[in-house]
Amino acid sequence: MSDSPLVAKVRPHLSLRDGTPDVVDTPEKLAAAVRALAAADGPVAVDAERASAYRYGHRAYLVQLRRPGAGTFLIDPLPFANLRPVHEALSTAEWIVHAAAQDLPCLAELGLRPARLFDTELAARLAGYPRVGLAAMVEELLGFRLNKDHARVDWSRRPLPESWLRYAALDVEVLVELREILHTELQRQGKLRWAVEEFEHVRTAPPPSSPVERWRRVSGIHQVRGRRQLAVVRELWHARDRRARELDMSPGKVLSDSAIIRAATGKFRSKKELAATPEFSARPAREFLDEWWDAIGRATACGEAELPAPTPNIDGPPPAHRWSEASPDAAARLSVAKTVVAALADEHRLPAENLLAPDVVRRLAWQPPHSLDDHAVATALRRLGARPWQVGLTAEPLAKALRRVELHELRHSTSP
């Protein structure tokens, strides 16, 4: 990897080698794609396009595959119950995916799961590249510009425009080449084993679980004061979610977060007053005004025992900004642990959050093992989900640092 800044010059646009492929949207086309993929050899580049800004949920509306010797396939999953025949054709192939954690869940819903994985974004992070987006990596390593004009379009639209299909095919056009370059770079830096462990961790990770109180993620909720206003947010969020699911629309397009906050913080005496606000002037918000007003009524009428708690129930330590008051000793441990991880990350030229997840650092600092010897700290890190390479790099320095904090606390507590 070059340490010099990128040379500022015009790069040629990346173009498709084989032209824009036809969409695979019939059983006959799918069978032909499966035969071609099964007959080819080597890794397969994989990508998926979602429409989360337009539709409810995170399902894939297009699946892109490219395998040397087979070419590129753009599969429309909507006509098919699942894509298990594709999975069987690729049962032993290594998947090359950029930012795999984003795409693997929606691909798994279609019956597509990798047997092996190479994540080009994660590889770039471990190799120390400052910019790890696909377009940035294509420019840095291959010298091409990758057009990202269609990154946020509505992929549920049918038929898909040719320019969108070309964009989608380009996303898998270069992944095999990127994989080879990054594999070589990781090997040169002595980080390939780390990457293999990280890829396997991503590949085998369980599906992400939704937080119990998802309504607390409404943007702007910090403006809400008191449990009654929180109840309005909760009831409106659930009403919106039900309606969005029924309409198969992105919840934010049914009713914006700003509308929910406005309804919670305003003192509206009538549905007419609510309808007069700019946040409720858009068509979907206005169309279902009765539902929103009923939700506000439920929040207003519920008893004290039914009101939400001021803060969410947290599985784990409290937010770090409260540590100095709740537990000064834990705050001191966290400060030292973060410093140790940051220094090690800088030494090995990778982001601190990839060396050791911030949540792991917080939990270790909040509740360290009774014994702070190297073995005990290593065991605690493994229990918290750290991979072997991470434990090998961090356990001993963290144990040493935490022992220093413990000794300082002991001296402070026994001093006259």
Automatic annotation (TrEMBL):
InterPro entries xref list: 3'-5'_exonuclease_dom (IPR002562), Exo_C (IPR041605), HRDC-like_sf (IPR010997), HRDC_dom (IPR002121), HRDC_dom_sf (IPR044876), RNase_D-like (IPR051086), RNaseH-like_sf (IPR012337), RNaseH_sf (IPR036397)
Domain of life, source organism: Bacteria
Calcium found in the keyword field: no
GO terms for biological process, alphabetical: nucleobase-containing compound metabolic process
Domain HRDC: 226-306
Gene3D superfamilies, sorted: HRDC domain, Ribonuclease H-like superfamily/Ribonuclease H
Gene Ontology molecular function, alphabetical: 3'-5' exonuclease activity; nucleic acid binding; nucleotide binding
TM helices/strands, residue ranges: none
Keywords attached to this entry: Exonuclease, Hydrolase, Nuclease
Protein name, as recorded: 3'-5' exonuclease
Organism: Acidothermus cellulolyticus (strain ATCC 43068 / DSM 8971 / 11B)
